[in-house]
Design a protein that fits this description.
57% helix, 3% strand, single chain, mainly alpha, two-stranded antiparallel sheet, 4 strands
């Protein structure tokens, strides 16, 4: 190449660099100005969190530096990432003829060979073993087992089969009274799903079908002031409702908010096949400030967006309180998958996590709810039935991946409510669940534990993503 050509090329490159510098300068300046004008609304998300004695700033610091790294590590473990769910149930409320046709709505289920050996048997099912019996060794254990067999044999010979069936029905009825969700999916059509292979993100599912689900939840299942016909209850009108009804609405709103943050943080930025950054052509996801603005910006939400975000913080504290209360029970779980090294790591991680959250002051007090006599108990039952109905509506979601994460997060919240408000949730002097596991105390199935941790992990991720959106909007 001649000297002249080299100089021309050099000048061209210099000009291009100067041009790009000028463009970047004015673009960044424009962003700064627009941020001051349009995005200052996110600065309003601060101060007290309704119905608690905590603040947004306290939760941000606690979650982003201590909780988020730990809970993300926990839910990536084999025990927590395999979730059994039935995605084939039909919607019981209306004909669902609007299935999402996009490939990103599909869920990849697990083959039997993909599962850890511990999930293929029966050892994973319940946390209802008598731990004092379980850890006995030698002759004492054998003697105890023989005594139990003799006693059970005697009982079975003196009580009729019909009476035993009645007892089973009574027990099933009592168990249902503790359930804030429909029973965990463990029927013939339920399949294990690897959550790590099916991340929650934007799939393109929207429009009348998605709106119908949320409208039904808000309009028909949330407690509402009289003569209010808008889908969302504005914050000013919530003050006229009792604590329990406000808490129910804030929990549903917080869940809805969390899901919308996930979809904004993992938005489908490109769907144009193979590219240099995405050679497999499976879509390219990332944060979308525009989508976040549409979901929560004041001009799109009649000024309610920051209140919806605040409801997320409320729900976070509700589920955090449930984990604190259930800590003694959760520390007894083996988290068994058949991989000794993995299981030991999981137990250590869970125990460390529970110790960390135990140091966080109690910021949501469930004991202030459902106080009084018969009227309070009636309201508590309405509260439970409303939420069970919400869990059933998840079978009306037309996108399989959205249905998967909706069912998991609703079951996680339902498990938290069960821990906080069940009549079997006996507490000791420290307001923690009794560590005695018997028929009179609360029991949790594996699916409930998996849902509880993953649901809280989703809330923790949402709060972490808010901080990222703060920086992005600046």
């Amino acid at each position: 190449m001649s000297t002249c050509s080299s100089n021309c090329l050099l000048m061209l490159m210099v000009n291009v660099c100067l041009y790009m510098s000028v463009v970047c300068f004015f673009s960044s300046s424009s962003l700064i100005v627009n941020s001051c004008i349009d995005n200052n609304w996110l600065n309003e998300l601060k101060g007290n969190i309704d119905e608690t004695n905590s603040t947004v700033e306290i939760v941000d610091k606690f979650n982003n530096y201590q909780i988020y790294p730990r809970i993300i590590s926990i839910v990536s473990k084999d025990y927590f990432k395999f979730f059994k769910v039935n995605l084939r149930r039909t919607c019981p409320f209306w004909s669902d003829d609007s299935k999402c046709a996009m490939r990103y709505c599909q869920v990849e289920s697990c083959q039997l060979d993909d599962l850890p050996i511990g999930l293929k048997g029966s050892r994973n099912s319940l946390v209802d073993e008598d731990m004092s019996i379980k850890y006995m060794e030698g002759p004492q254990q054998q003697e105890c087992e023989e005594a139990m067999q003799d006693e059970l044999g005697y009982i079975n010979t003196t009580i009729s089969a019909a009476a035993m069936e009645d007892f089973a029905l009574w027990q099933a009825h009592d168990d249902i009274q503790d359930m804030y969700c429909t029973l965990p999916d463990d029927d013939g059509e339920a399949e294990y799903v690897d959550l790590s292979l099916n991340p929650e993100r934007y799939t393109g599912y929207k429009g009348p079908s998605a709106n119908r689900v949320w409208n039904t939840i808000y309009m028909e299942n949330c407690f509402r002031p009289k003569n209010l016909f808008e889908v969302y209850i504005i914050s000013a009108k919530l003050t006229g409702m009792c604590l329990e009804k406000r808490a129910f609405y804030r929990a549903i709103s917080g869940l809805h908010t969390s899901i919308n943050i996930h979809l904004s943080a993992q938005y489908l930025l490109s769907d144009k096949g193979s590219t240099f950054l995405n050679p497999c052509g499976t879509g390219f996801w990332g944060p979308s400030a525009e989508e976040f603005e549409r979901k929560f910006g004041p001009k799109y939400t009649k000024g309610e967006g920051t209140q919806w975000l605040r409801n997320l913080y409320f729900l976070y504290l509700v589920e955090l309180r449930a984990l604190q209360k259930a800590a003694p029970l959760l520390k007894q779980v083996e988290y068994y998958t058949g991989n000794d090294k993995e299981d030991e790591t999981t137990r250590l991680a869970v125990h460390n996590f529970l110790e960390i959250i135990n140091n966080f002051p109690q910021q949501f007090n469930e004991h202030t709810m459902f106080l009084g006599g018969q009227q309070a108990q009636k309201l508590k039952e309405e509260f439970r039935l409303h939420f069970r109905n919400v869990s059933t509506i998840m079978d009306c979601v037309g996108c399989d991946k959205c249905r998967l994460w909706g069912k998991l997060q609703v079951q996680g919240l339902g498990t938290a409510l069960k821990i906080l408000f069940s009549n079997k949730a006996q507490t000791n002097g420290y307001n923690e669940l009794s560590t005695t596991v018997n028929k009179h105390t609360l029991q949790l199935e594996r699916s409930e534990i998996v849902a509880l941790f993953n649901a809280f992990g989703r809330l923790s991720t949402s709060i972490y993503e808010i901080e990222k959106f703060r920086k992005l909007l600046r």
